[in-house]
Amino acid sequence: MSESSAEAKIITESEEQKDSFKNLIAIKDYRLLIAGQFVSALGDGVYALSLIWAMKILTGSALLMSFVLAAEVVPTILFGIISGVLVDRGNQKMYMLLADIFRGIVVVTLVLLFWFNMLNPWMLIAAAVLVSSFDAFFLPAKTVAIKTIVPDHLMTRAQSVSATIQTVVGLAAPALAGVLLLYSLSTAFLFNAATFFISFLFILFIKNKALSEKSTEKLNLKIFGKDLKTGFKTIVKVPILRGMIIYLVLINFMLAPIAILFPLFVDNVSQLAIVEIAFFIGILVGSISINFMNKFPKIVPMVTGLILMLGAFGALAFTNNFIIITALVAIAGIGSPLVSIALQSLFMVKVPREVLGRSQSTMRVLLESSKPISLLLTGALLVHFSISSFFLGIAIFGGIVVLMMILNPVIRKAE
């Protein structure tokens, strides 16, 4: 090999290892995956707003609204770890395809029930359970897909891109949901169903063979139990993940009521759309900002993000001005990706691919386990306490948790 050829090869290899958006977007299967995420996220944004608004229209009950939101979390806890083990054992592509198809069918069923004036509150709860059950398989499969398709040196950028896409879509979704809901509830649900089917088509064209491989080892109860333990042990072996589990569970418990408080805090669907858009504008800013914090330990963006969120929610307790409310919600949005992207990037890099599905599901189950209690408790307590009191309580409780995190030496020293 000539000296010039050797130099060209070194340059090429160096360029391939460069952490750049150009190298990331050059991966065709990644483009298909994020295209599916784009349309799916747009539909999810419309669906989430439509589901909770449908319950508010049908009943006006904060308690039943909390039941809908809790119903979305319960399947994660029940099926989360199981789905992770199954996903790790093969054909992640098929799990994503089946999840998209069945979620689309569930939402189409809601539309048919609405057209025939048969839609009842318990049906919304049932739909929430079913869609979330399929989510329990889709999400770990997508996590493994990203890990498989994207090299480690591009992982933080990939997570930032995914969060940015989620955010850009989120800017449009609330406004789109508001328009669709003003037209009709069935139109909003039909839009969501269509996005599931479109996502199906994008994933169908992903060619990475590793995503369709199946484990040759036969699954039995003994091996299944071993796989479950492996997922938990993998998390425990990573010091910062082990040290943060309890704090993350408490944070999820603290922030869960926000999903109920926002719809109740506004007077109409237009205001709700504006608040949601403001929150996602903040997330967009935060998703971009975290790219300038890569040299800091992960605890820095996490704590910064939590302080922004808690400070904004606490301030909401002291104002009724809608412009100020919108600005505070945007500030809270900035903090959200600083926490989530830092944690997800750390998780994706530290955990091996072969146990990523079950480890991700185990982590998700641990984090989501506190949400149903928090949501149901919120629905019951809102009868006796004001929404402003809840925002203030979230800020105070969260501040204590953040202080505990900062004082923990394991978390403070983690890179």
From TrEMBL:
<keyword id="KW-1133">Transmembrane helix</keyword>
<feature type="transmembrane region" description="Helical">
    <location>
        <begin position="365"/>
        <end position="384"/>
    </location>
</feature>
<feature type="transmembrane region" description="Helical">
    <location>
        <begin position="272"/>
        <end position="292"/>
    </location>
</feature>
<dbReference type="Pfam" id="PF07690">
    <property type="entry name" value="MFS_1"/>
</dbReference>
<feature type="transmembrane region" description="Helical">
    <location>
        <begin position="61"/>
        <end position="87"/>
    </location>
</feature>
<feature type="domain" description="Major facilitator superfamily (MFS) profile">
    <location>
        <begin position="29"/>
        <end position="415"/>
    </location>
</feature>
<feature type="transmembrane region" description="Helical">
    <location>
        <begin position="189"/>
        <end position="206"/>
    </location>
</feature>
<dbReference type="InterPro" id="IPR020846">
    <property type="entry name" value="MFS_dom"/>
</dbReference>
<dbReference type="InterPro" id="IPR011701">
    <property type="entry name" value="MFS"/>
</dbReference>
<feature type="transmembrane region" description="Helical">
    <location>
        <begin position="390"/>
        <end position="411"/>
    </location>
</feature>
<feature type="transmembrane region" description="Helical">
    <location>
        <begin position="322"/>
        <end position="344"/>
    </location>
</feature>
<feature type="transmembrane region" description="Helical">
    <location>
        <begin position="161"/>
        <end position="183"/>
    </location>
</feature>
<dbReference type="InterPro" id="IPR036259">
    <property type="entry name" value="MFS_trans_sf"/>
</dbReference>
<feature type="transmembrane region" description="Helical">
    <location>
        <begin position="245"/>
        <end position="266"/>
    </location>
</feature>
<keyword id="KW-0472">Membrane</keyword>
<keyword id="KW-0813">Transport</keyword>
<protein>
    <submittedName>
        <fullName>MFS transporter</fullName>
    </submittedName>
</protein>
<keyword id="KW-1003">Cell membrane</keyword>
<dbReference type="InterPro" id="IPR022324">
    <property type="entry name" value="Bacilysin_exporter_BacE_put"/>
</dbReference>
<feature type="transmembrane region" description="Helical">
    <location>
        <begin position="94"/>
        <end position="116"/>
    </location>
</feature>
<keyword id="KW-0812">Transmembrane</keyword>
<feature type="transmembrane region" description="Helical">
    <location>
        <begin position="299"/>
        <end position="316"/>
    </location>
</feature>
<feature type="transmembrane region" description="Helical">
    <location>
        <begin position="32"/>
        <end position="55"/>
    </location>
</feature>
<feature type="transmembrane region" description="Helical">
    <location>
        <begin position="122"/>
        <end position="141"/>
    </location>
</feature>
